[in-house]
Design goal:
The chain is α/β, with parallel strands linked by helices. The chain has one domain (5-134): Phosphotransferase system, mannose-type IIA component (Rossmann fold, 3-Layer(aba) Sandwich). It is built from five helices and four strands. It has helices spanning 14-25, 44-57, 73-81, 95-103, 109-122; strands at residues 5-11, 33-38, 62-67, 86-91. Strand 3 (62-67), helix 3 and strand 4 form a beta-alpha-beta unit. Helix 2 crosses helix 3. The radius of gyration is 21 Å and the shape is elongated.
């Protein structure tokens, strides 16, 4: 089966770090996941050349490109790549987004783009502080002679 490839383009070292996190959970994803770290000061034309070289090595018909920040160089480069193949671009990459995409590897780039957005937004939430082992915190008053054991 020819799964959709995933190309991470982000400010260094985020793309490589996300790839490492992905490989930790999905060890077999390396064949369809590439990372391009964008160092400071590198001209966009050179970044685009590097991205095109990575795309040329990907045998998949479709590619989902995940970038870090809308309007930043990685996203701008990714937008210029969409002319070359059936490529979809989603920005705002985070770990839940990436894991969601890798979990549904058999789907099209278009459908993966939708799943990426839902994975990213569902993975961001406020978390309440809890006591260890999810026990309720007990307030200790000096006058109380009760001993918690």
């Amino acid at each position: 089966m020819n799964h959709t490839a995933v190309l991470l383009i982000a400010h260094a070292p985020l793309a490589s770090a996300l790839r490492s996190v992905a490989e930790h959970v999905y060890p077999d994803c390396a064949a369809r996941l590439c990372a391009l770290d964008v160092p400071p000061g590198l001209p966009p034309a050179q970044i685009e050349e590097q991205a095109k070289a990575l795309l040329a090595k990907m045998p998949q018909q479709e590619v989902l490109v995940l970038t870090d920040v809308f309007g930043a160089t990685p996203c701008n480069v990714a937008q210029r790549l969409t002319d070359h193949r059936r490529i979809r671009v989603v920005t705002g990459v985070n770990v839940p987004m990436l894991w969601r995409v890798l979990c549904y590897e058999q789907e099209s780039a278009e459908r993966l783009a939708e799943r990426a957005v839902s994975g990213a937004t569902q993975g961001v939430m406020p978390v309440e502080a809890r006591a260890p082992q999810f026990q309720e915190l007990r307030v200790h008053h000096g006058q109380d002679r009760h001993h918690d054991q």
